[in-house]
Amino acid sequence: MTDTHTNDSPDTSATAEGPIDPATEGTPTGADAVADPGAPAVDPVAQELAEQKDKYLRLYAEFENFKRRAVRDRQDAEHRGMQHLLRGLLDSLDDLSRFVTVDPATTDAKTVVDGVGLVERNVMKSLAGHGLEVVNPAGQPFDPAVHEALTTAPAASKDEDGLVAQVYQVGYLLNGTLLRPARVVVQQWNG
Asked: What's the sign of the alpha-carbon dihedral 12, 13, 19, 22?
């Protein structure tokens, strides 16, 4: 007996995995798949470029993180330094606040002047501990690196030529770096 019902069209029935695609029917998939010798090979230059780009992006991100961390560390160090400096000045600030409560009717001027002098010495001692140096060059040779000549005065002898005659305002150095030059009058020999 012959079968009278024949179907010449391809089978398009669905299976449990989904519909069957006639173009891929019979093609191995998953672990059974083998590289198709006709498929384009992965370009080694493109692969190397992708790897280098990935390395570059990772290095760039790491460097950006390093920059942010360095800025944060520098700011933290500045804050710690300021805290250390200000802690040394707190006692002097307390002394100054005591002067505000002094009754001028019962306190003589000498006591106030002595108290302010004490506060000044305490402040200078604290700042000297942080590297501050006072530049007070009276009677010393003029040094343009740390002195600013405001004017000149006649010198009595040739030996006094170029010496500082008077200091209008002292200067300051911080760890050897000039913060403010001493403003001075320099003697000049005209003889």
From this structure: negative
What is the distance of C-alpha 146 from the center of its chain?
28
Crossing angle for the helix pair 109-128 and 44-100, to the nearest 10 degrees: 160
Q: Which two tokens stand for residue 69?
A: 């961390």
* Pairing status of strand 14-15 against strand 132-135: unpaired
Q: Which domain holds residue 93?
A: 45-130
pTM for the whole thing? Answer: 0.60
Whether residue 50 sits in one domain with residue 92: yes
Q: What is the pLDDT of residues 129-165, one digit of tens each?
A: 999 999 999 999 999 999 999 999 998 888 889 999 9
Total domains in the fold of the chain: 2
Residues paired with 31 in a beta bridge: none
